[in-house]
Specification:
This protein is α+β, with helices and mostly antiparallel strands. The chain has 16 helices and 13 strands.
């Protein structure tokens, strides 16, 4: 067996195949774009086929039915300010931690790489807050989750829908003590490009990055800015250099290939609960709109209902019922559309490096920005006609 997948676009990099191989014949290694893919060692592989059987992209995945939909916010203004949306992740994780459980999620490590970690305290959990637009490295997290589940610990695992699907497939059974929470995902970007971008910022400003936020809400939830805090004390707020990475991300040239054919980008979710921003709430629930942030919460399963209705959460939760039609946004209907410039971008990157593509694809004049906005509007209209 040469590869687990038939084409790269059919691999989300979840690692379920690697963790399932008892002979350690599969290693997750980065390709030329920086995304992790399973590499099979032919000397160790015995052609058992387990890796393909467990692959969530290959096998038929069980999807949950139509969810119960809520617009929700954390009653604490301080907790919402430190969150990307309405602060509901904090409430869910608090309920699990307060019962002696653990929480899994993504964070920036000391090298500004995004990795998945386990938190057993609220202080550790706080680093899991906030959106990260880079694909996280799961390392051996699935094995750790399995061990915690077998020991009977209460667990909240948060991640992208493909990571949730991979974990479910790897575990192969339902655990009553495991709660799965997926996010409304716009796609994950290249860890290699992000690494180059961090190097670019730190070299230009002659200072290490202390903190990075893709969703700073100082000017309000609907006017979020990208923000970088440097160890020198300087703060960069949505300036030209920050817009380089922002334009690459929203230009859809650095997303993982599987993001453009994602089978999980619909209203039928993988997790027990789905969290996202309630964009467009001013149209359906104008009185509930709040510039500190509002979550859309999709409760997809009985376990999701159990967690969402936990008594300790209800005391700190403000919510109203909504419906599928009101909460629909592109990422709950179809995958992120691939840019026609993607192949050319990576050819340019391999040939000329990050500085070249940063200038060519990441720096837009006002005409370019206007064209991007028009393109997004036309894309939404096209999908709404289908």
């Amino acid at each position: 067996m040469k590869t687990v997948y038939s084409e790269k676009k059919y691999c989300s990099g979840c690692g379920a195949c690697s963790y399932s191989c008892k002979l350690n014949a599969i290693q997750m290694k980065p390709d030329e774009e920086g995304f992790l893919y399973p590499i099979i060692n032919p000397e160790l592989c015995v052609q058992c086929g387990k890796c393909r059987k467990v692959c969530p992209f290959i096998k038929e995945n069980t999807k949950n039915g139509i969810p119960k939909v809520y617009a929700a916010k954390n009653a604490s203004d301080a907790e919402r300010k430190s969150s990307s949306s309405g602060g509901i992740f904090t409430l869910l994780s608090d309920a699990v931690l307060e019962s002696g459980g653990v929480v899994y999620g993504a964070l920036f490590d000391s090298k500004m790489q995004v990795i998945h970690k386990c938190a057993s305290s609220k202080e550790e959990r706080n680093s899991l807050r906030g959106s990260k637009y880079i694909q996280s490295n799961l390392k051996h997290i699935f094995l750790q989750v399995q061990q915690d589940a077998l020991e009977g610990k209460k667990i909240l695992f948060t991640g992208t829908p493909c990571q949730i699907a991979g974990l479910k497939s790897f575990l192969g059974k339902e655990y009553s003590n495991l709660y799965l929470c997926d996010i409304v995902c716009h796609g994950v970007s290249s860890p290699q490009i992000f690494k180059d971008y961090i190097f670019y910022i730190e070299k230009k400003y002659q200072s290490k990055i202390e903190e990075i936020s893709f969703r700073d809400k100082e000017q309000g939830w609907t006017h979020q800015k990208w923000k970088i805090k440097l160890q020198s004390g300087q703060i960069l707020l949505d300036n030209t250099d920050l817009r380089i990475y922002k334009n690459l991300y929203y230009g859809h040239v650095i997303q993982r290939p599987s993001c453009h054919v994602c089978p999980y980008a619909d209203i039928h979710r993988q997790g027990d609960i789905t969290l996202g921003d309630f964009w467009g709430i001013e149209n359906s629930l104008p009185d509930f709109k709040d510039e500190l942030g509002i979550n859309v919460v999709l409760v997809n399963t009985h376990k999701g209902t159990e967690l969402f209705e936990n008594e300790s959460i209800k005391e700190r939760l403000i919510y109203v019922k909504s419906d599928v039609k009101s909460c629909l946004q592109p990422q709950l209907q179809y995958p992120t559309e691939k840019s026609k410039k993607r192949e050319r971008f990576w050819q340019d990157y391999q040939k000329s490096g990050f500085y070249f593509v940063a200038k060519k694809y990441g720096t837009l004049n006002m005409i370019g920005i206007f064209k991007q906005k028009i393109k997004r509007v036309l894309s939404k209209m096209k999908h709404s006609w289908k």
